[in-house]
Amino acid sequence: MGLDVTIRQKGFRKKTMPLDVILGSELHYGDFFCDHIIKDQLGDFEFIAYHPEHIGRGFSVAWNPAEKKRIDLRLPFPTTPAEFSDFFETVRRISTYWNSTLEVDGNKVALAEFLSELDNMIEFNKKHIQHCANDVLEDDKEDGHLTFMSVMHPLNMGKEEAALFIKDNNAFCNWLHEKQCVDADYDTPRFFFENDEIVGRYSYVNGRPHLFAGKPSVPFGVVDTDTGLAIECDCWKMEVFSDKDTQVAELDYSEFLSRIPKEKVQRHDAHLLLIAPLSDEEFSKLIQS
Predict the structure, then answer these.
(1) Are 55 and 175 part of one and the same domain?
(2) Do 162 and 213 have their domain in common?
(3) Phi, psi for residue 93 in degrees, rounded to 5
(4) Is the pLDDT of residue 225 over 80?
(5) Are residues 114 and 83 part of one domain?
(6) Does residue 269 share a domain with residue 129?
(7) Are residues 153 and 257 in the same domain?
(8) Are residue 13 and residue 117 in the same domain, yes or no?
(9) Helices marked H in the chain — which ranges?
(10) pLDDT at 219
(11) Can you tell me whether residue 17 is helix, strand or coil?
């Protein structure tokens, strides 16, 4: 669910849209790859814009330097009030720079009318957060959660988070920002076909904090190129590196997690674990046969 806005340039003497007009003086950008962002990189036709001082879920901008006809923006729900303000201000900047028309969810709307809806949209967003939290709390599964594709990596609202968010809407906004500001490497699995089965491999590099799934899973949107269907993987491995270039071991994923000292593992959200750097002695024990 989200808010879709299309801005079309009118007139015969059309001009391109500079990136700095889209971003203004405060927004940053990145290319969305798999399920996380590559900061300061533009996609071929689309990028993610976000504010580094209040990171939410980001919003997509379909743009390329030569584009003169239209720009499409999409803001996912739920997000934060600050990100709504960033999104509306971006629409205002683009629309003002171009002599343009505006379509919101496929309907033509005057710019002034659109901008006047900011407070209503923020109020709707609050109710949507409550709705999501209720869904998680009412889920019969003990580990039931909702995954939110966000700027830096997906975040997962479990019952612990939902119980907090349903009491305090601001807690959801703070959670999005704080969890995405953690100085840790987020790794996505790579998939290989070995011995008639698909193997998913993560990578651990010594000396850095890491975010890993408590239970590994195929990231959203990863499909088998031959069939076009989502990959099914039951075999998970962890490649262990002493530095970024030197692999020293390969472990079953569950075995890897079991060898990490408990005091070095912290719950990050309903799906991810934050693993602190290991001492030399702890690393030696990790990789021993």
Answers:
(1) yes
(2) no
(3) -60, -45
(4) no
(5) yes
(6) no
(7) no
(8) yes
(9) 19-23, 81-97, 111-115, 118-138, 159-165, 169-180, 253-259, 280-287
(10) 81
(11) coil
Domain end: 148, 164, 181, which one?
181
Strand partners, 199: 192, 235
DSSP assignment letter at 134: H
Give the domain range for residue 128. 1-181
**Over the chain, what is the mean pLDDT?**
93
In contact, 82 and 56? CB cutoff 8 Å: yes
**How many independent structural domains does the chain possess?**
2
Tell me the pTM: 0.91
Q: How does pLDDT run across 95-107, given as a tens digit for each residue?
A: 999 999 999 999 9
Strand partners, 251: 238
| Cβ neighbours around 159 below 10 Å, total | 18
CB atoms within 10 A of CB 180: 20
User: Of 181, 205, 234, which residue constitutes the final position of a domain?
Assistant: 181
What percentage of the chain carries pLDDT values higher than 70? 100
Confidence of residue 233 (pLDDT cuts 50, 70, 90): confident
Q: What is the mean pLDDT of residues 164-182?
A: 94
**Does residue 218 share a domain with residue 87?**
no
Q: What is the pLDDT of residue 187?
A: 86
Give the CA distances from residue 216 to residues 187, 188, 232, in Å, rounded to whole numbers and listed in that order.
Answer: 11, 10, 12
Does 231 lie in the same domain as 137?
no
- At residue 70, the pLDDT reads 96
Give the strand order in the sheet containing 70-76: 36-39, 28-33, 46-50, 59-62, 70-76, 2-9, 100-104, 107-108
Rounded-to-integer distance, Cα 148 and Cα 142, Å:
19
